[in-house]
Design brief:
By secondary structure, the chain is an alpha+beta fold. Helix content is 38%, strand content 15%. It is globular and about 55 Å long.
């Protein structure tokens, strides 16, 4: 698929930058209605069907993280005092990381990102841009492993679990 400059590309979503899509037409319609104030009043809001030109490999945010992602987060943690605070608190919450005695059950990357955001909000450790850089670092790490985006089950947070749908977040929507 291709996007031009007038298309909507989320600069800051819950799970970072990207083109957020859903497989559910009703949910797409609700987001169109919710976001209508972001476009000119006379804009023709259209819901598009996405067709990938080439298959995209998605990282499932709902699956337990692997050791290599935990290691990457520890590497990021050591680069900035704000990262040390929010990632350290998050690791303590889930009892993961090399300095915690692991429970053997890792949280999902979605849980980790949400907890990092909560820790930052509660303690005002850093700017939203600095916080987004953590996700960008993880994204770059996953790109090196052949991934082109995130996927997760949507509808749990905004929809309170009433209408679940599959979300795909394309990092390079071209």
């Amino acid at each position: 698929f291709e996007l031009d400059s007038s298309s909507h590309y989320s600069a800051r979503g819950l799970f970072g930058q990207g083109l957020y899509t859903t497989d559910d037409l009703i949910t797409a319609g609700k987001y169109r209605k919710k976001n209508r104030k972001l476009v000119p009043e006379n804009a023709n809001q259209v819901i598009y069907k996405i067709t990938e030109k080439q298959p995209v490999k998605f990282f499932d945010l709902d699956q337990p993280v692997t050791k290599d992602i935990i290691n990457k987060l520890e590497e990021i943690q050591g680069t900035f005092v704000g990262y040390d605070e929010v990632i350290g608190r998050t690791f303590d919450t889930f009892n993961i990381g090399s300095y915690n005695k692991s429970s053997g059950k890792n949280p999902s990357l979605a849980q980790i990102i949400k907890e990092i955001r909560l820790n930052n909000k509660a303690n005002n450790n850093m700017s939203i841009d600095d916080l987004d850089n953590i996700i960008i670092e993880i994204e770059e790490f996953l790109r090196s492993k052949g991934f082109g985006g995130f996927t997760h089950q949507g509808g749990n947070l905004a929809g309170k679990g009433k209408r679940l749908h599959q979300v795909k977040i394309y990092w390079d929507p071209q």
